[in-house]
Design goal:
Transmembrane segments: 33-53, 59-83, 95-117, 123-145, 152-170, 182-201, 213-232, 244-267, 274-293, 299-317
Distance between the termini: 29 Å
Order of helices and strands: HHHHHHHHHHHHHHH
Structural class: mainly alpha
Protein name: DMT family transporter
Helix content: over 70%
InterPro entries: AA-Vitamin_Transporters (IPR050638), EamA_dom (IPR000620), EmrE-like (IPR037185)
Domain EamA: 38-169, 183-317
Number of helices: 15
Keywords: Membrane, Transmembrane, Transmembrane helix
């Protein structure tokens, strides 16, 4: 599925880079600017979701709010993949297992924990804690994927990521069971759920495409999260459907879900998964700025420092891949063939 897609994306990127060595044509410049625009749009759509959640939580119960977001997102994404045709629905056992894993860990559990936890923290701090996911993925991969190993430097990177989250949360030892501390912990556990689920998907390696799998996983998740909402005693009948409530559901469902995921997968197709995942670290910046401008949230010094520590952890974990990408970019800027091509 996405891992075979990732290989094709990297191959496509390498071919594009080979063509860009030397003089850059007008079409290539347009493509480069379009890619930068796609990166920005993806970061904006995902980053503003945190402020959207904060706004919606003033009018909606958290778990019901998450379920309604997936109702809207699933309807739009299913329509998109159906219109595109091709391999648009799960067919194999691996496909169905991937949909279930994605629905449980990447969507349902992630959303319930995030929406409940974000009642007790700012949008910027939540986004920084959520950026822990790609730092933790190698830790789960070490135990779930036979060929994966963690170097000493990578282990330090994972520890730094955890330290960064602790800096953001700044826990008070005397109030570890207070509502705000528990809420912040739930956001961090949401990131753990995403990291674990993403590695499980690599282990399953389904054939269905990423966007189609996401659409079906979101459909299943909408049902699961509605059940969770009912189990928690939340009532849609008791909700006052104000413009704020309707606007928050519409924005998250249409833009930060149905718009963000296609943009993200399109970015992977253009630049490959390594560079595309750097958007994870633009999202907290967008979330913090949006929270400050729209919600008048204060950007705490601990949030900034913690974010820097998490990013440093990510750099250590992915240092080899990032080094290869940096060498390729430098070669392109210098008009030379990228290292892999120069060695051929």
């Amino acid at each position: 599925m996405r891992y075979r897609e990732a290989e094709r994306a990297e191959s496509h990127v390498a071919d594009s880079e080979e063509r860009t060595v030397g003089d850059e044509s007008g079409d290539e410049r347009v493509r480069r600017y379009a890619t930068a625009g796609l990166f920005l749009v993806t970061a904006l759509l995902f980053g503003t979701a945190f402020a959207g959640i904060e706004v919606g939580l003033t009018a909606l119960p958290p778990v019901l709010f998450a379920a309604l977001r997936f109702d809207v997102g699933a309807l739009v994404l299913l329509a998109v993949v159906a219109v595109r045709g091709g391999y648009w629905r799960p067919l194999t056992g691996a496909d169905y297992r991937a949909v279930v894993v994605s629905a449980v860990f990447l969507v349902s559990l992630n959303a319930v924990l995030l929406f409940v936890g974000q009642q007790y923290t700012t949008s910027g701090a939540a986004a920084v804690m959520f950026s822990l996911a790609p730092v933790l993925s190698p830790l789960f991969a070490r135990f779930l994927l036979p060929d994966e190993r963690i170097s000493a430097v990578g282990a330090v990177g994972i520890l730094l990521g955890l330290v960064g989250v602790v800096v953001v949360v700044a826990p008070d030892p005397t109030r570890l069971l207070a509502a705000d501390a528990v809420g912040q912990a739930l956001v961090a556990v949401a990131a753990v759920s995403v990291a674990f689920g993403s590695v499980l998907l690599r282990r399953i390696d389904p054939d269905v495409g990423s966007l189609a799998m996401t659409a079906w996983a979101m459909t299943l998740s909408a049902a699961l999260v509605h059940v969770a909402s009912l189990a928690l005693g939340e009532s849609a009948a008791a909700v006052a459907w104000t413009p704020v409530a309707l606007g928050a559901v519409a924005y998250l469902g249409l833009f930060s879900t149905a718009g963000a995921f296609p943009a993200y997968f399109a970015l992977i197709e253009r630049v490959g998964p390594i560079r595309a995942n750097l958007v994870t670290y633009a999202v907290p910046v967008v979330a913090s700025v949006t929270g400050a401008l729209v919600l008048l949230e204060r950007i705490a010094a601990t949030t900034v420092v913690g974010f820097a520590v998490v990013v440093l952890g990510f750099v250590l974990v992915e240092r080899d891949s990032l080094g290869e990408e940096l060498a390729t970019v430098r070669a392109r800027l210098g008009g030379r063939a990228p290292p892999d091509e120069a060695d051929d």
